[in-house]
Design a protein that fits this description.
The chain is α/β, with parallel strands linked by helices. It has helices at 8-15, 21-32, 51-56, 68-74, 115-127, 142-149, 202-211; strands spanning 39-43, 60-65, 84-86, 99-104, 129-140, 153-157, 161-170, 173-184, 187-198, 214-221, 234-241. α5 crosses α7 (202-211). The radius of gyration is 18 Å and the shape is globular. Bound molecules: S-adenosylmethionine. The site of S-adenosylmethionine (SAM) has 17 residues, from loops.
Amino acid sequence: MTRPYDALALVYDRWNAEADYQRWAGFLHSRFAGERISRVLDVCCGTGRMIGPLQELGYEVSGVDGSAAMLTRAAANVSPGTRLRHAMLPGAAPEQPVADAAISCFDSVNYFVSDEDLRGLFRFVANSLRPGGLYAFDLNSPYKLRTFYGDHHHGDDFGEFAYVWRNRIDGARIRFLITIFTREGELFRRHEEVHEQRLWEIAELTAAARDSGFEVVEILDNYQPVLADDETLRQTWILRRASA
Ligand SMILES: C[S@@+](CC[C@H](N)C(=O)[O-])C[C@H]1O[C@@H](n2cnc3c(N)ncnc32)[C@H](O)[C@@H]1O
């Protein structure tokens, strides 16, 4: 059993090759307009797939993530010299200098499974932002985790690698047992990881955000200018750090 993302990092970018990072970055750019945002912190930046597109749009972007394996891969996706910090959250010192905006994309916030972890994450972000700064993140909705992930199995064969992904829901938490096979010469190496995500309800997240010094600006449907509803799969939250 490897730590979460040690093996997934080997295949993450090919597995998610179809992900909509360019569109997400373009949407965030439209939400950042008029907000005096130039410095952006990508919290749980993974392999840096949002950093590159935001840098192309002119932002100065740095990243922080708890997986050394993901950060090693990030170098290929970001501009040379980009600051990529290895830190497990919560518990790390806030970023200095502070950013004008922070982001956490591709359901990173679902990985903060307890109230304490979530509030710790929000406090880390609030302390890494200037007053009035924005925090945009997305979330696998409880509806998506129950209906599409639930107790299901998924799998695919990409040639160079293959995976089997088995899910177990237990109350407000879901565990993913992910078995990955990566090609090594004529043979495949088998890796196993367990990931855990939280089914966060809107009221719980709103309370945690407020307790951590944020106001909720909007909750949208998958990086579109449409309000999230009960059947939204990927909620997009935009918070603002209180000014005082
Ligand atoms: C699904 S990936 C998303 C990566 C990236 N944001 C993207 O859009 O592709 C989730 C990321 O969250 C990071 N992560 C999860 N829990 C974390 C924690 N407690 N502290 C720091 N990073 C964490 C993982 O290492 C992983 O890179």
